[in-house]
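Recall that a protein's primary structure is simply its ordered list of amino acids. Everything else, from secondary elements to tertiary packing, is in principle encoded there. The following example makes that idea concrete.
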Amino acid sequence: MTVAMRIGLISFGVREFATLHEVCAEAGHTPVVYAYSRSMRPRSATDPAAAAAAGRITAALPAGVDLLLPGSSEGLGTALGGYGLDLLVCFGFSWRLPPAVLAIPRHGVVNLHCSMLPEYRGPAPVLWAIRNGDPMLGVTAHRMNEEFDAGPVLAQERSVPLPDDATPDALWPGLAASLRRVLAAALEQATDPSAGAPQSAREATYAGLMEEAFSVVDTARTSREVHNQVRAHRYIGPGRGPVATVAGQRVKVLRTSLTPVDGPHLDCADGPVWIAESAPAE
């Protein structure tokens, strides 16, 4: 028999909140509050796109559900403390939650992470999967503890194809379906404090933000590595690409091909990669 829980949701977009909300409601639980971080780090300036995102989330907010826009972890904890939460579900939150916040929900915090943990712990698992040329993306639901992405695993699956043109919109249908299955399985176990398989720290890998050098094409790398570098930038957003010098001009490489296409090419360590689309570099 399902024990209905009062649930808080932390995420970053309309479709993400809606997916988490629907899974919780279908399992017989009641989401009562959303939280959206308006900056990448607590106590920092509001990100330029955050105000518009908050507006979209507000416009789609279900009746009776509150929206929190915390500026600090302490403020988030103070606000959440008044909702009588049984569980907090998190997907795509960049802040480290301190113990005082983790202890607020009666059954703790479940985090959804886009990798097969313990691989790709950290803030950029999808970018590293693309960068490394992985054919599939994993999704894991785990209990959140004080370390990033290190808590016991409740459910996971590797089922989301990573196409050559991997953009957030292209990935979303498969990712949403996987999130639904993994979260549904995690909710069934959330009230059991003994549920969850410990992660192996020895097998963990880290998926940090891209280093500054990654914004420049290095032709000492293989053509496949350069191609995946361009793919990773394209996933970050439209018009993004690493810089290369072509015929004496600096350009942003927006799209590449491993087979010949009309246009210039770059001679890499093991052969050429063709530039299918580029733009002048600022």
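The mean pLDDT is 96. Helices lie at 14-26, 50-59, 73-80, 99-102, 125-131, 168-189, 223-236.
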